[in-house]
Amino acid sequence: MKLSDKDFDRIVKRAIRRIPEELRQHLDNVIISVRKKPSREMLEEMEVPPGETLLGFFSGIPLVDQSVTDPPLYSDTIFIFQEPLEEMCRTLEELEQEIELTVVHEIAHYFGISEERLEELGYS
Q1: pTM for the structure as a whole
Q2: How far is Cα 98 from Cα 65, in angstroms, rounded to an integer?
């Protein structure tokens, strides 16, 4: 499955719009960036084994750990990786579902939800 950058971005934006407003309002200061694939540094930081890849990555300080008196130096960023998502999907419907799942998964990390809890909730 291969989409143009514009079509892929449109699906990511649609996935963000489907997130309930009471959660989405907390994303005002979060950058959501689509990249072709994760950098080597991201793969190393996340300890991704060779042959595996990342679909998304949250970089920053989870909302629950942020302090008004000690603001973060850099913007919180959610990266969504187009090529790995496209490679794992055979249909447009499957790709849209996987993009939405990845966006929700990374936003959950921004809210401070652990990988283990996401697995319990079925978001892994």
Answers
A1: 0.85
A2: 28
Identity of the amino acid at 26? H
Evaluate whether 84 touches 51 at the Cβ level (below 8 Å): no
Total structural domains in the chain? 1
Distances (CA, A) of 123 to 29, 40, 86, 102: 23, 24, 18, 8
**Residue 32 belongs to domain spanning:** 5-65+72-121
**CATH code: domain of residue 48:** 3.30.2010.20
DSSP helix/strand/coil, 103: helix
Per-residue tens of pLDDT for the chain, all 124 residues = 889 999 999 999 988 888 888 878 878 888 999 999 999 999 998 899 988 889 999 998 888 888 877 776 778 999 999 999 999 999 989 998 998 888 888 888 888 888 888 888 776 6
What is the C-alpha to C-alpha distance for residues 98 and 3, in angstroms, rounded to an integer?
14
Residue 86 burial (10 A CB sphere; 0-12, 13-18, 19+) = middle
